[in-house]
């Protein structure tokens, strides 16, 4: 099956957003998105992949490669395909995205992404595409009373409400009593790092053969390998009451029609 790739000037943002909200398991879009890549089969849009950064672009790359900044990489924000497409098409989509980046973004050295272990995803599509694995880390989310997944950075109004109840000026994390009263849970789960070196210099830095990119001194802070995680690498913990309790995979509600807390985040 052959896919034909077009870049942002051939796929309007509104079309990409509509496709993502229909086909991605999480319809909330990153705000720092620079490129919307569309993947077509017989003239019909079958997949979308976005390139941009998370909320802390420079800090993210510096955690992996000291000395680099946001201009040296892009992160996959969203990637999804039409449900009618075979799974192998996702690898084709990644391959075409890498080819497009090499042709159109020659100064970008790395393509970075994460597999959302909180959702039970360990990144098999990245493994099949020969991305390098950079380990995992535990991260926090809140499961709201309606089952919605909410990032801690998006709880400002709830934290203000929580602080007011305590007679404090502010709190940075919702307290156990506040969460229990409102049916909220604080969940920790794993995120799995993957990176794809796009340039010869990037490949040599990852392998330890050189220590400069664009005349900048660079050191890798992570050991990258092909020793990939599997399903049993996922873990989930409930920290609602302040103690770590291992739990089964949470069942988040993700349908766009049920979103209450993430409405303004896309």
Shape: globular
Gyration radius, in Å: 20 Å
On the 0 to 100 scale, the average pLDDT is 88
The CATH top-level class label: Alpha Beta
Query: What's the order of the H and E elements?
Result: EHEEHEEHEHEEHHEHEEEEE
- CATH architecture group name: 3-Layer(aba) Sandwich
Distance between the termini: 32 Å
Indicate how many domains the architecture comprises: 1
**Largest sheet data:** 10 strands, mixed
State the fourth-level CATH superfamily: Gcn5-related N-acetyltransferase (GNAT)
Helix percentage:
25-40%
Instruction: Please give the number of β-strands.
Output: 14
Q: Unreliable segments (pLDDT under 50, ≥5 consecutive)?
A: none
Number of helices: 7
Which quaternary structure do these chains form? Answer: single chain
Strand % is 25-35%
Helix/strand/pairing class, anyone? alpha+beta
Predict the CATH topology.
Answer: Aminopeptidase
């Amino acid at each position: 099956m052959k896919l034909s790739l077009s870049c942002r000037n051939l796929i309007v943002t509104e079309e990409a957003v509509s496709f993502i909200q229909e086909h991605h398991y999480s319809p909330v879009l990153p705000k720092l998105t620079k490129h919307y890549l569309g993947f077509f089969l017989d003239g019909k849009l079958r997949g979308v992949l976005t390139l941009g950064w998370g909320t802390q672009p420079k800090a993210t790359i510096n955690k992996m490669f000291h000395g680099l900044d946001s201009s040296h990489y892009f992160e996959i924000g969203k990637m999804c395909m039409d449900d009618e497409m075979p799974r192998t098409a996702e690898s084709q989509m990644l391959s075409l995205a890498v080819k497009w980046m090499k042709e159109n973004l020659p100064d970008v050295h790395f393509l970075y992404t994460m597999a959302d272990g909180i959702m039970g995803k360990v990144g098999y599509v990245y493994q099949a595409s020969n991305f390098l694995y950079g380990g995992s880390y535990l991260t926090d989310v809140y499961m709201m009373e309606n089952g919605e997944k909410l990032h801690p950075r998006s709880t400002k109004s709830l934290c203000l409400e929580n602080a007011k109840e305590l007679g404090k000026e502010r709190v940075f994390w919702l307290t156990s009593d506040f969460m229990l009263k409102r049916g909220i849970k604080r969940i920790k789960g794993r995120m799995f790092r993957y990176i794809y070196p796009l340039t010869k210099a990037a490949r040599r830095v990852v392998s330890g053969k050189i220590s400069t990119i664009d005349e900048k001194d660079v050191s890798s802070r992570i050991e990258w390998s092909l020793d990939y995680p599997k399903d049993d690498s996922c873990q989930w913990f409930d920290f609602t009451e302040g103690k770590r309790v291992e739990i089964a995979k949470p069942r988040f509600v993700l349908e766009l029609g049920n979103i209450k807390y993430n409405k303004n985040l896309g």
